Amino acid sequence: MLSSVEVEKHQKIVELGDIKIGGDELVIMAGPCAVESREQLLEAAKYVKEYGGHILRGGAFKPRTSPYSFQGLGEEGLKLLAEAREETGLKVVTELMDSDDIELVNHYADIIQIGSRNMQNYGLLKKLGRLEKPILLKRGYSATIKEWILAAEYIIAHGNSQVILCERGIRTFETATRNTLDLNAIAWIKEMTDLPIIIDPSHGTGKRSLVAPLAKAGVTAGADGIIVEMHPYPEEALCDGEQSLRPEEFAQMIKELDRVAQAVDKRLVV
C-alpha cells in the first residue's frame, strides 16, 4: 500500500506553513465543536492562540444524528473561520460533509476534515485525492484499522499524499463513555504506516474531565498531535458542550502536555 512504511521507509510530514505534522513537534488543534457566532468564535480563537494552540477547529457544516439539531452556519461559518485566521494567524481545520461543497470548503480551509460518518464515502475520498490540501481523515466509529487505512489509500492513490489520520474513538459495548478511544491504533499506525496521526479525546470520551488524561495517554502512545473541543462557555454550547474544555482547563492541559511531550522526545512549540 502507498501508506505503508515498506514503501516510504520514513515518517511522512504534512507541512502547513511553519507547522509540521508528523515530525518531532506536537501539534495542537482546538476550538468549538461548531461555529455559532462571530463573538463566540473570535473569543475561542483568542484563547487557542494565547494558550499555545496552532490550528483552530470549528464546524461550519455539522453532521447531527437528529435533523432538528443545530446543523451549522454553512458558508457564513466558513467566513468567520477565515476572519479568525486573519486576526490570530491560526490555521483552520473544518469539516467537509458533501461533495457539492468541496470547492467552497477548499477555498476557506487550511485542512479539510472528513468526519467519522464519511470515512467510507469513497466517491468523496477520490475527489479529495485531486486536491492539493491536507486531509484530516477521522476513523469511522465502527471501522477496523484496516478499513481506515484503506480509506486513506483512496485519497493517496488519487494523487493527494497529505493525509493525517485521526483516532476519535470507536463504538464498543461500553456505555460509560461516549466512545472508546483506541490507543492501540496509535501505536499500530506508527509501526505499520508512514502517516501522521492525531487523536480526538473529546469525541473519544464525551466527558470533559477525561479529555486531558486521554490526550496525555495518546501522546505517550505516539500521537503527533491532538484535536480537542474548547468553548468559552461550554454550558451555552449548541453542540457537545459536555465534552468541551473551558479555556482555563485547556491552558492547564497544554502545560501538562508540554511535560509529556518532552518525556517522549517531542516538542510543544507555544
Q: Could you characterize what this model shows?
A:
It is a single chain. This protein has helices spanning 5-8, 38-50, 75-88, 102-108, 122-128, 145-157, 183-192, 201-205, 208-221, 247-263, and strands at 14-16, 19-21, 27-31, 55-57, 91-95, 111-114, 135-138, 163-167, 197-199, 225-229. It is of the alpha/beta class and 270 residues long. The chain has one domain: Aldolase class I (TIM Barrel, Alpha-Beta Barrel), CATH 3.20.20.70. The strands form two sheets. An eight-stranded parallel beta barrel has the order 3-4-5-6-7-8-9-10, surrounded by six helices. A two-stranded antiparallel ribbon has the order 1-2. Helix 2 runs parallel beside helix 3, helix 5 packs across helix 6 and helix 9 runs parallel beside helix 10. The longest helix has 17 residues, at 247-263. The N and C termini lie far apart (36 Å).
How many strand elements? 10
CATH H-level superfamily: Aldolase class I
Rg measurement, Å: 17 Å
Large-scale geometry: globular
- The percent range for helix content is 25-40%
Output the helix-strand order.
HEEEHEHEHEHEHEHEHHEH
Query: What count of structural domains?
Result: 1
So what's the CATH class?
Answer: Alpha Beta
Organism: Orenia metallireducens
InterPro entries: Aldolase_TIM (IPR013785), Class-I_DAHP_synthase (IPR052899), DAHP1/KDSA (IPR006218), DAHP_syn_2 (IPR006268)
Domain DAHP synthetase I/KDSA: 12-260
Pfam family, one: DAHP_synth_1
Present the secondary structure layout:
Layout lengths: L4 H4 L5 E3 L2 E3 L5 E5 L6 H13 L4 E3 L17 H14 L2 E5 L6 H7 L2 E4 L7 H7 L6 E4 L6 H13 L5 E5 L15 H10 L4 E3 L1 H5 L2 H14 L3 E5 L17 H17 L7
Helix pairs in contact: 2-3, 5-6, 9-10
Pfam families: DAHP_synth_1 (PF00793)
Keywords: Transferase
Protein name: 3-deoxy-D-arabinoheptulosonate-7-phosphate synthase
